[in-house]
Amino acid sequence: MGALVLTMAGLSCCSDDDGLEPDDYDKAYQIGFFNQPSYAKNKQGYWYTDEHNNEVFYKMIPNTQAPYTLLVIPKGEKGLETIEHLKEKKDYILNIQEVNEIEKHYFVTTNKYFESPNLYVSVPYLLEENGNKDHPLLVVPKFGIKIKDGYDISSVEQKYKSVLSQKEVIELKYGFTYYHFDCNKKNSYEVLKLSEEIYHMDAVEWIDVNMYGAFWAF
């Protein structure tokens, strides 16, 4: 599976998590194993503003059928230990592939969707528009945010200081600046849900959610 970090924006959701109980639970590493994500039936997707200043929504369809190839990012040392522990779960875990050695991103192929407070997890999505099963998207917990003229990024930072941490300010040669943030959420649904909230702030011109896509790049 190739990977290209893409950028997309916004989201719409129709309900809260269903509160599904795990089919199996690993107490030592707080890993819950599920037949499918609790948010599988929730409406998800991304917004952008087109050249005519119209807001456009693309629906994203989460995979609900095993096997899953998940993007998994460990949180600290406990997260790295959890990744190593998953390798022992032979009944569920089919393959673990490290795809970003510096930031410790993994693709995990598994017969069960899983979550843990020690990990960030994204299920693969397809865009409803084309339904191309060869090009799934995996949500990375990183945002690019462009602020409208006359506003300041501090309004976003203050409101979401518990879940966003600024990584860098990017100044492009063709005339604008945007801000790159890490997002501390547990899964792709929560990241996309947060992106919708930020997208609709008065100060925000656009927000892009980083994603792995269909081709290898840097």
Radius of gyration: 17 Å
Structural class: mainly beta
Strand-residue fraction?
35-45%
- Give a quick account of the main beta sheet: strands, pairing sense, barrel closure: 5 strands, antiparallel
Q: Please count the beta strands (DSSP E, at least 2 residues each).
A: 15
Q: Number of helical runs?
A: 3
Euclidean distance between termini CA atoms: 15 Å
Shape: globular
- Share in helix: 10-25%
Strand order of the largest sheet: 1-15-12-14-13
What's the rounded overall pLDDT mean?
86
The helix-strand sequence is EEEEEEHEEEEEEHEEHE
The low-pLDDT segments are 1-17
Write up what this structure looks like:
The chain has helices at about 75-85, 155-160, 190-200; strands spanning about 5-10, 25, 30-35, 45-50, 55-60, 70-75, 95-100, 105-110, 115, 120, 125, 140-145, 165-170, 175-185, 205-210. It has about 220 residues and is mainly beta. A 5-stranded antiparallel sheet has the order 1-15-12-14-13, covered by helices on one side. A 4-stranded antiparallel sheet has the order 7-8-6-10, with helices on one face. A hairpin with a 5-residue loop joins strand 4 (about 45-50) and strand 5. The radius of gyration is 17 Å and the shape is globular.
